[in-house]
Amino acid sequence: MYLKCLPLLPLLFAALQSLAQHPAAVCGQVKDSAGQPVAAASVTIVTPSGAGVVFTKTDAAGAFQYRLPPGGDGLSLKVTALGFRPFIQSISHGRPLRITLYALPTTLTEVTVKPKAVHTAGDTLQYRVDAFKDKNDRVIGNLIARLPGIEVDEKGAISYNGKKISNVYIDGENLLNGRYGIATNNVPVNAVEQVQVIERDQPVKVLHGYIPAENVSLNLRLSDRARATAIHTGQAGAGNEAYLAEYSNLVLHPRIKSINSLKSNSAGRNLQRELADVGASAGNGPIPPPPPHVYLAMSGENLPAVDEKYYLRNTDHAASGNALFKLPAGWTLRLNLSAMALKRRYEASQSVQYFLPQGDTVRYLESQHNTDRHREWQVQAQLEKNHRDVFVKSTTTLNVPQSTGQGDAWQNGRFLQQRLPVRQAGAGNETQLVKALGGGHLLQYHSVVRVDDVRESLHILPGLHENLVNDSTGYRELTQQVETRQWYAHQSAAFKIKRGPLVWSFSAGGNYERNHLRSGLRVTDSTGNAHAAGDRFRNNVVFENLGWFAGASATWMLRKGAVVAEARPGIHIIGYGGVSKAQRFALRPSVLFRHQTGRYGEVQVRYAGQTSFGQVNDIYDGAILVNYRQFNTNAAPLPQTGVHSLTARFAYRKPIQVLFWQLSASAEQTRQNFLQAYTIDSGVTRTSAMDFDNRQSKYTVSGNVSKYVFPLSLQLSVAARASLQTGNMWYNSDISPSRTYQYSLAVAVQKKLPVGAKVSLSGEAGKYAHQLRPRKGEALPNVTETLKTKAEWQQQLGGGLSVTPAWQFTSFKPTGQSAIRQHFLDLMARYAPPNSKSTFELQGVNLLGQTSYRQFITTANQSSLLEMPLRGRTVLVKYIRGF
């Protein structure tokens, strides 16, 4: 039904356009007390909190002009110029303004002015790149990771003062959305003049003053030279059993921006991470459609807690093309294209022990040698108009990932071969319209349509689990097949009314989800004949969820903050298989309070209640062999999960002193009508969802501080975290409450030395305690202590030559066992000839020649020892050139 409504979208947009009321133009002239024009004076429209919403400058005659944004109640005009007193007054809607600036009667002594390394402008924090740039920085991501108050995790996701970054803009343009690793890994550091943190980013201009912005984004302000010319960078490297080749092309013109790259390597660099979507949302945007579910796997891979360069045995090829074109009438067209071809070799062995509530212990040994090949093509096209009285965005995506895994495995001495091809395809469109109707009224429309198809087939040779699938008779091969097709459609509209500092919002809409699951298990006997394993291994389920919802919210815009109260009640009509359709109700309330304390601090408190319902992967009753040692099925009612969360956060930042710190605490209560039950026997796990009143809780306290001391050229950061999680576990027909405690402390220090050197030290200590509380007997806690440290010395030797040795150390110590300690040594020598665009690098990785990695992995009732071979000692010679 919703698909039939799509042709009406142009008519709806035309109707909205007919209601447009263009904001009035206001002009004026600025002169000094002698009547002379003041050129290049800054003219800003500011909100009551002091945030700027319109920016312009006077021309040579002192004249200026701007358009008043919609809903302009409470706005003021601010004019500033060097050597004059600031001028500010309430907005005038009438005749042209005549403004007189008066000189500051200040006598200045001779001083040397140095630009500030960090300063603020409204809600934007600005880092001057030259103040933090290092001679060995090549791309802007190298510098961002060292900025005070900013952290970058192992996946490339960026956080500022404890909050995840949503987007990375390039000169204010959103070229990449959440896939900002393409920018941080390709934009040269010399092309960026400032790294700006937009602490309350509202990318939709027409929503300014209607929705309190909670997103945090970065903006890379480019240098004039970068805007004027195309930037080309190439590099190539070769070493023992490793190579690297990369080419990138950047066009950063104000009207056309483009980042394109071709990359290939077998040196342990994961190109999939660069193309991943790592952006975070504050939760006030549209809810994305549910992703397609993948059921089968060759095994669950546990990855080492060290850098990928030590263990990733890969051959990665990736191509990416990203372009943004500014069109007439304020429209922009964005194209994002990417393709990947990845080959990974995975070898690991595990010694696993399950400690069951009855006092039994199940042990098994397994090892795997797998080769995974993954290919993926993704196309995204977006047409957008972002004006102060109208916002239109339509995004169409096509995603085609395909993968094939094959390899050998041993479990308790039994050999088997595996092959798993997975074919996926997905396409969809998301359209958003926001129109200011004048008089403080605003209309929104949101539409999502998406379809996904997944086909999986797991082949295991020779046959296994004869007693479960073939009446204890031996056979040749086992094949598990799963096919799923998912349709999703969402349509909603909202109407907002602004009256002074109060904004009312009313919304209504619906969504429809249909998911068809088909699966079957086939057995091939010794003669090559195949037959079905039986009806208990078959699924043919159509799951439908039709939801109707309404919403109401009230937002009170405070002078230094906001209060938002919202409820989004909805009714869901859900049916599947032979089960009659059932109605479910969800209220989904939320309250947000945000207030700026003083000049540098901000407190935020948020409560949210969410209710979600299961999907087809939660309700099928035919067993599926998800991997060679685990069967899944369900024997529970329609899953329902209710979550109530309360979060309090205080953040402080003082740019002049380059001091950042934040403290947060959260409590989360979860109630579910089901519990995952596990039955384990000789390395075979059978999982089912059981009817159970399951209650869980989680409490977390975290904080971090970052400080840069310019006189000492020293940067210090400290982060601490503690959490407690309670729940229930069901193993072998016994339910046991469980508790998990986690503590961690991380410290990092960077110091520039007067001998042309820079030293970096970092370390993280953690303790993880898991404990079951069985109804009978007593279980000892399962405790693991971890320690990771890293030291790096960067020495400039003059003439463009630098040497950087780096050392890493890891330690894992579980209860009652000896600690596992491992050391890694790397070296990089870099030579950049003076007045040249060329750079030569010599990289040595794992110079101590560690051949294997060992790590303990523990849960409340499980302890396992992971062993994995590492990449050997690698020496790579690289040549890098910009042109």
How many helices?
8
Mean pLDDT: 88
What does the overall shape look like? globular
Largest sheet: 33 strands, mixed
Helical amount among residues, as a percent range? under 10%
Care to count the β-strands?
47
Structural class: mainly beta
| Computed CA radius of gyration, to the nearest angstrom | 30 Å
Strand content: over 45%
Describe the oligomeric state of these chains in a short phrase.
Answer: single chain
Low-confidence stretches: 1-22, 107-113
What distance separates the N and C termini? Answer: 54 Å
Labels describing this entry:
883 residues; mainly beta; 33-stranded mixed sheet; 7-stranded mixed sheet; 63% strand; globular
Explain briefly what this protein structure is.
The chain is mainly beta and 883 residues long. Helices cover 5% and strands 63% of the residues. Mean pLDDT is 88; it is low at 1-22 and 107-113.
Topology summary:
Layout: H1 2-5, H2 9-18, E1 25-32, E2 42-46, E3 52-57, E4 63-67, E5 76-80, E6 87-90, E7 97-101, E8 118-121, E9 124-128, H3 129-132, H4 140-144, E10 150-152, E11 158-160, E12 163-170, H5 181-184, E13 192-201, E14 215-222, H6 224-228, E15 231-239, E16 242-252, E17 256-265, H7 271-274, E18 313-326, E19 331-355, E20 361-386, E21 390-411, E22 414-438, E23 441-461, H8 466-469, E24 477-499, E25 502-524, E26 530-532, E27 539-558, E28 561-567, E29 570-576, E30 579-586, E31 589-597, E32 601-613, E33 624-627, E34 630-635, E35 640-654, E36 659-681, E37 684-709, E38 714-731, E39 734-753, E40 757-772, E41 782-798, E42 801-814, E43 820-831, E44 838-845, E45 852-858, E46 862-869, E47 874-882
Parallel strand pairs: 1-7, 12-14, 34-37, 36-38
Antiparallel strand pairs: 1-4, 2-3, 2-5, 5-6, 8-9, 9-13, 10-11, 11-12, 13-14, 15-16, 15-47, 16-17, 17-18, 18-19, 19-20, 19-46, 20-21, 21-22, 22-23, 23-24, 24-25, 25-26, 25-27, 27-28, 27-29, 28-31, 29-30, 31-32, 32-35, 33-34, 35-36, 36-37, 37-38, 38-39, 39-40, 40-41, 41-42, 42-43, 43-44, 44-47, ...
